[in-house]
Structures are given as C-alpha cells and as structure tokens.
Amino acid sequence: MWKRLVSFWKHRGEMSVCPVVRWQTLAGKWRMVMLQKTLSRWLVCLIAVAFLTGCPKPATERGQKPAAHTTGPAASEATPSTAESAAPSTTEAAPQPSEAQPAEQPQQPAPSEEAAKPETQETAPAPAQQEAMPAPEMTSPATESQPAQPAAPQESAEKPKEEAPSPAEKPAESAPAGAQSAAPQGTPYEVKVPLGLPPLPIPEDNPMTVEKIELGKMLYFDKRVSADGSVSCATCHDPNMAWAEHTPTSKGIHGQVGTRNAPTVINAAYATSQFWDGRAKTLEEQALGPVANPIEMGHTIEGMVQTLDGIPQYKELFQKVFGTGVTPENFAKAIAAFERTVLSGNSPYDRYRAGDQNALTEAQKRGLKVFEESGCADCHTPPLFSSYEFYNAGVGMNKEKPDEGRKAVTGKDEDFGKFRVPSLREVANTAPYFHDGSAATLEEAVAVMAAGGIDNPHRSEEFDTVREAKITPEQQKDLVEFLKALSGEFPKVEPPQLP
C-alpha cells in the first residue's frame, strides 16, 4: 500500500496532465468523425441524385458522333448558341428552359460558382429529355428559350443528329436562297473605265463575268425577244449610231411609232434612273421594260421566257452563267451586264483636264468658259455632264396633248412636263435631240437651251440662270464646238452569232 502511495506521489505530475492530453485526443478524433460524417452525407446525396436522375449516356451510346467533346479548331469555331446548348458532360448538367430565361436578361446578377454547382446538379434533365435533345449543330438562339418538347422516339431523334453538318458547313446552309444566283459563276470581268469617268458602279447581286456579258450581248441583238421577231435592243440602240438611232422617235413591232426619242446606252451605267421619265431605277429594270411595251417589242415577259427556254443553247448558257434556267431576272441581269461595258471617255475635254492644253481648240476653250459661267454645268454636271435630275424646259409643251413626263410616274402636278437631264457625252453623235426628237441638229438644241427653255406654266426656274446670262449667237457657236469635244472613245460591237 505504501509503495503504491509513493509511486502515485512520484508520478502525480504526469497524472495531472493525462486527462488534458486525453481530452485533446478525443476532441481531435471527434472532429475527424464529424467531418467524415459530413462528407459521407454529401456523398450519399450525390449518389441519390445521380441514381434518381440518371447519368448522361456517352455520345457513342446515343448514336451521336463524339464531335461535341472535341477540343480543336473546329470546336473553337462554334457559335455562342451552340456552346450554351451543347450536350451535358459527366460534370456539367444541361440547362433547363427555366434556366434559359435568366440567360437572356444580363441585368440580373449571375450566381457565384459555389452556389451554381448544387443548383445545376439538382436541376439536371431527365434521361428522356437528354436523349431527345438535338445535336449541338442543330440548335439556334430562337429555340433556346422555348419550352422543352416531349421526348421523340429514339429513331427520329438520332436521324437529324447523324445528318447534322459540321460547324464548317453551317455558313453555306444559312446563306440566303438567292445567294447562289448572285455569286459570280464564270470568269470575273474587270471593266476598264476610260479617262475622265468615275469608278463604275456595279450591283452586288449582278457581278460582271465574261460569260454573262457574252450572253447579254446575244440577247441584246436577238430579235426573238419581241413578239413578232422583228425588234431587238439594238434596233433602237444601234452601236453604229452611238448606241442610239437617228430618228426622232422609235419604231416598234408592226411599224408602230413611239412618242419618245431613244436615248443612247453610252454611260447609262452611271445613271441614277432610266428612261426619260425615270420610271426604272436600274439597268436591270430597264431591260425588261421594252419587252412588255405593246408599241416596242409587244411581248409578254412569260412569252419571252418561253421563247428563249425553247432554244437549247440558251438553256445551256443560262445554266452555265446563273446555275438556273431562263428567268426574267437573269435575262435582265445579262443584258445589264453587257450594257455596263458601253462607256465613253478619253475625249479631248478629258485630256485637257488631265493637263494637255492642246487637246481643245481655242473655240472649244471659249465654249467651256461659257458652259461653266452661264449655268449650263448646273444641270449638265461634269464629269458625266448630267445631274440626272428632272426639269421642264418647255419642249413639246405647245402640243395639243403634251407629254406628261415625270408626272406619269409620280402623279404630282409639279412634275408635269419634266424629263431627265440627258448626258452630253457623245451628244454630237446622237442627233436628233430632246425627249421627242424635235431638234434635228445640235445648233437647234443649243439655241433652245441658251434661251432658258420655252415658256410654259410648268417651266423650271433653274433655267432662269441661263436666260439671265444672255448667251450671244457667237457664244452659242463656241458652245457647239465645246460639246463636240465631249466625243471620245466608245465600243463599236458587231452582232454576235446567235443560237
């Protein structure tokens, strides 16, 4: 007994510490146990969620191509809508339609990563929804915010996935239906603009190609576009007559006579409107007008197309140039492309402006000065020598039934008797003049305009400037000589061999 007491007394220091040590040890073990229990509970929850919702099948088991999981250039080209709607992987859940709504409202604060992870796990889609989900390439922003559709049968869901194009093929499929006809099919053609002319405007939907221009050339000279096969575009716009004709007004089918003079095709590509009254905005619109005019070609658009479609070589050419059969639109595009090659420039005036002081005669230099100082250039604006605006100069207003001019297009009384300002390039070679061909010579036309037009109730006040200049007969002669200096170089085309 004594020995025990002595031993206890000797080890009393150690005995006093043992309870504390044992308490710290027990506390550490308790924390470990609690941590293990917490982790176990989370693990049980995750296993339960995975068991209830089901795990997404691999792409190979669903019949998909595992392209959605690739990481490379093709994957980096995916659009944002494709990336957001991609099929869920084993660590991310695909968003439900309820989650797509906040995505479209950027003003709401996005949840943090720690809060988002449990939420996406709890809202994972059901297995049937996962299998019916379209492939990433087939999604679009319009369908992301729509409610989920009922699960389709496995075969119908897998078929579009197998035929889904790769991201690189998407742009070709999403192109507009008319893009194929707008794209150039053939050898690109670059128009060489002569000296003195501005850059040539070419519509984006009608690019220039060698094959298209050649087809347009054939159609331009082909009289079969008229109802009786007697009139072509070249009948009234003859290349040998400066792409016009030397008669006051034009003759159509059955010898019918029109009421207006045929304007030249030269530099018509620059005009902001076509015809004397501007009823067509482009060369393409203009090309179809005479076909259906009962006095000119007297055909119908449908009948003209049927006629050309019955010629095998034309069908082959249209297919080669446009990738389609004969259509009114492509008929007009071909002729317009050909007409855009009919340009005139490099005239003595252009060379004078370029620095050649000897390009103009003394009379032409005096005429240029009168032209610029008397107000002529206000309407006949260089370098095209036309503003392509509409004015009433009084020409033909004394007739019993005057031509309404621009009013027939706009219906406005103030446009009565107004006509488009013609270009003065090649004017010396395109007599007779004015919309009705009433001036037989250039001298007659200059005299009318130098007087400020002909008085009538609708005469445009812009002619007052010219009238107030009081151009003398000698100055009129100088003006005529200057206008001759606007004659340059233009193509003279021979009729091609027709199909």
Automatic annotation (TrEMBL):
<feature type="region of interest" description="Disordered">
    <location>
        <begin position="59"/>
        <end position="192"/>
    </location>
</feature>
<dbReference type="InterPro" id="IPR004852">
    <property type="entry name" value="Di-haem_cyt_c_peroxidsae"/>
</dbReference>
<dbReference type="InterPro" id="IPR009056">
    <property type="entry name" value="Cyt_c-like_dom"/>
</dbReference>
<dbReference type="InterPro" id="IPR036909">
    <property type="entry name" value="Cyt_c-like_dom_sf"/>
</dbReference>
<feature type="compositionally biased region" description="Low complexity">
    <location>
        <begin position="73"/>
        <end position="113"/>
    </location>
</feature>
<dbReference type="Pfam" id="PF03150">
    <property type="entry name" value="CCP_MauG"/>
</dbReference>
<dbReference type="GO" id="GO:0004130">
    <property type="term" value="F:cytochrome-c peroxidase activity"/>
</dbReference>
<keyword id="KW-0575">Peroxidase</keyword>
<feature type="compositionally biased region" description="Low complexity">
    <location>
        <begin position="121"/>
        <end position="155"/>
    </location>
</feature>
<keyword id="KW-0479">Metal-binding</keyword>
<dbReference type="Pfam" id="PF00034">
    <property type="entry name" value="Cytochrom_C"/>
</dbReference>
<protein>
    <submittedName>
        <fullName>Cytochrome c551 peroxidase</fullName>
        <ecNumber>1.11.1.5</ecNumber>
    </submittedName>
</protein>
<dbReference type="InterPro" id="IPR051395">
    <property type="entry name" value="Cytochrome_c_Peroxidase/MauG"/>
</dbReference>
<dbReference type="GO" id="GO:0020037">
    <property type="term" value="F:heme binding"/>
</dbReference>
<dbReference type="GO" id="GO:0009055">
    <property type="term" value="F:electron transfer activity"/>
</dbReference>
<keyword id="KW-0560">Oxidoreductase</keyword>
<keyword id="KW-0349">Heme</keyword>
<dbReference type="GO" id="GO:0030313">
    <property type="term" value="C:cell envelope"/>
</dbReference>
<feature type="domain" description="Cytochrome c">
    <location>
        <begin position="362"/>
        <end position="487"/>
    </location>
</feature>
<keyword id="KW-0408">Iron</keyword>
<feature type="compositionally biased region" description="Low complexity">
    <location>
        <begin position="165"/>
        <end position="186"/>
    </location>
</feature>
<dbReference type="GO" id="GO:0046872">
    <property type="term" value="F:metal ion binding"/>
</dbReference>
